[in-house]
Amino acid sequence: MPLIEVNGIKKVYFDGELQTPILHGVSFVVNRGEFVAIMGPSGSGKSTLLNLLGFLDDYTDGSYKFDGIEAKNYTADEIAKIRNQKLGFIFQSFNLLPNTNILENVKLPLLYSDFPESEWGERAMKAIRSVGLVHRALFDSAKISGGERQRVAIARALVCDPEVIFADEPTGNLDSKSGGIIIDILQKLHEELGHTIILITHETDTAEHAERIIRIKDGFVESDTKVAHPQRMGEGDLDK
Amino acid sequence: MTIKHSIQTAFRGLETNRARSLLTILGMVIGVTAIILVMSLGQGAQNLILDQVKGMGTRTVIVGGGREPTGPSDAGQIFSDSLKPRDLDLLNRRENTPSVKYVMPLVFGAASASYQSDTYNLTIFGVSPLMEQIFDVPLKTGAFFTNEDVRARAKYVVIGNKVKTQLFGASDAVGNIIKMKGNNFRVVGVLAERGQDFFNFDEAAIIPYTTAQDYVLGIKYFNRFITEASSDALVPQAASEIKSTLREAHNITETDKEDFFVITQVDLAVRLSAITSVLTIFLTAVAAISLIVGGIGIMNIMLVSVTERTKEIGLRKALGATDKNILTQFLLEAVMLTGIGGVVGIILGASLSWAIATGITRFTSIVWTFSFPVSAAILGISVSGAIGLIFGLYPARKAARKSPIEALRYE
Ligand SMILES: Nc1ncnc2c1ncn2[C@@H]1O[C@H](COP(=O)(O)OP(=O)(O)OP(=O)(O)O)[C@@H](O)[C@H]1O
Ligand SMILES: [Mg+2]
């Protein structure tokens, strides 16, 4: 069942008189439960595309249907709710709240959700457990490593049980070992819990953990291929 | 998002920048303290004045020469010379003024008194012995001059308590001679200490009005007639009898041509409290300006904070915060800043006012009662809350309207 359908989507950045067209008409469909990697040269519009899919930015033309409904037909409050309940974001630069411990960072989306407060602690701890950071739950977010921060970000993205997780170069700021752990976690979320994941990456190695790779170039889809045998990390050393 | 969590979030926001939050609050604290102080002291002053006027006796009716002064700039009118000895005679005839118990003429002027090498500037009151009953001024030592002395233009003087201390120190005053306007006056009495009162008798020299008119002031008229109605109920009646008697004597037919004025103690109380009210309102308005300055400070800090936390705003939106959630968060931060400032200001203002009241009462002869109008507290709280809302709204809207992606990209 299609969760995301984009059809001839275009994006032009306007800066006063200056118009910068980035996406010239991108089309593809992502079904529930898929793990898709988006690749392409720097500046090709990957992040731009992901921001459109994540309701963080508006598209200029074309059609984007989320859950069967054209994105432009959602009201601002519905969009906030979708971001809260159905989407999870993982950014390259982690974006944790400073001076705030891990548990509270993970709880942040719950503040804006309809889940009763009595469930918050349990939900947050479950998400933290799934990224293997239970022993750090009360650490300040500034006092943990980059890899751990990104795992906190994953837990935060998971806490409301979203339909889809968007990850924009989640390993971009990490060494290969920490990066590997992150990809492993994402892969397990997909395989074991059935999460839909859309991952942007530069590295073919990383991309090959997905089931499908969409390549973007010059604002168009260059190729859209299945990965015959998705790679797998060595058995995870998660809760080390 | 529940109110509880909105408040928690706002509080955490303020906590992150504790020093800055405290400095911002300070602006509000000063403003609210000033308002509370002014209102509280104004109320105290009003109570004091009312007490003093009441001390004059509720039956007192004052007649003055000239048109009634309409304001401070009009004060020259006080020295008008329309009240003549003939008027005194007419008012003293009970067939003219049946509701009046008695009439005391009053003249006054500034003079300096000297004894040996000491000199003191005081006010001379020329009165009759009725003074003792009308103003209830007990003597500490000596005795008041008599009607006989008034007729004889005796150079006798009863001095206020402060005059006595300044000129004689601890030694006896009664029986000694002081010099005023080139005349030698024998001190016959010293008033008991009065404290702050309407006429400031502590710094006065009280002499027979005849002596004052002829030897000291050189006038043939009276400044005032202090009269007393025979009962509280007859005060208005007495006032109108006095008016019609004087009108007839002065051949006046139109009210606005009157060359004298009649005020009762009630009139006076109303008028004086009106003056303090106006003063209080004026000073409160001045203090309110500092609140506006405080509000602008809040707005400034909130704008800085919104810019600094652009990325946080973007993140919150990406995680599902609505525009309203963000607006509430920043508005609450502003209102909490001003609200805390308001509460601290009220406490501080009330404490200062209490300290001033206690200080005045202890170190001066004035009995100043601390009063803290509830209206001031309500005003302080609501004004500071309103300032948070007003000056916090613009920064909060700015925060709420940020596009999530631009906010997230902000470095
Ligand atoms: N707000 C903007 N206004 C104008 N141009 C923009 C804006 N945001 C991005 N761009 C431009 O759009 C192009 C695509 O940017 P985007 O971030 O989508 O690239 P990307 O594929 O994610 O690149 P990278 O791999 O380096 O992250 C870039 O050339 C960028 O300069
Ligand atoms: Mg990018």
TrEMBL record, chain A:
CC per GO annotation? membrane protein complex
- Keyword Nucleotide-binding in the entry? The reply is yes
Key words, A-Z: ATP-binding, Nucleotide-binding, Transport
Q: Does the keyword Lipid metabolism apply?
A: no
Q: Which SMART domains match?
A: AAA
ABC transporter domain: which residues? 4-236
Q: Which GO terms describe its molecular function?
A: ATP binding; ATP hydrolysis activity; transmembrane transporter activity
- Any Pfam family hit: ABC_tran
Family note = Belongs to the ABC transporter superfamily.
Q: What is this protein called?
A: Macrolide ABC transporter ATP-binding protein
Automatic annotation (TrEMBL), chain B:
Per UniProt, residues of the MacB-like periplasmic core domain are 21-244
Give any GO molecular function from the UniProt entry: transmembrane transporter activity
Q: GO CC annotation: what is one?
A: plasma membrane
Major place of localization? Answer: membrane
- Which InterPro entries does the annotation name? ABC3_permease_C (IPR003838), MacB_PCD (IPR025857), Macrolide_Exporter_MacB (IPR050250)
- The segment(s) forming the ABC3 transporter permease C-terminal domain are 286-404
Q: Which Pfam families match?
A: FtsX, MacB_PCD
Where is the protein found, in the record's own terms? Answer: Cell membrane
Q: Which family does it belong to?
A: Belongs to the ABC-4 integral membrane protein family.
The protein here is known as: Multidrug ABC transporter substrate-binding protein
- Organism encoding this protein: Candidatus Nomurabacteria bacterium CG1_02_43_90
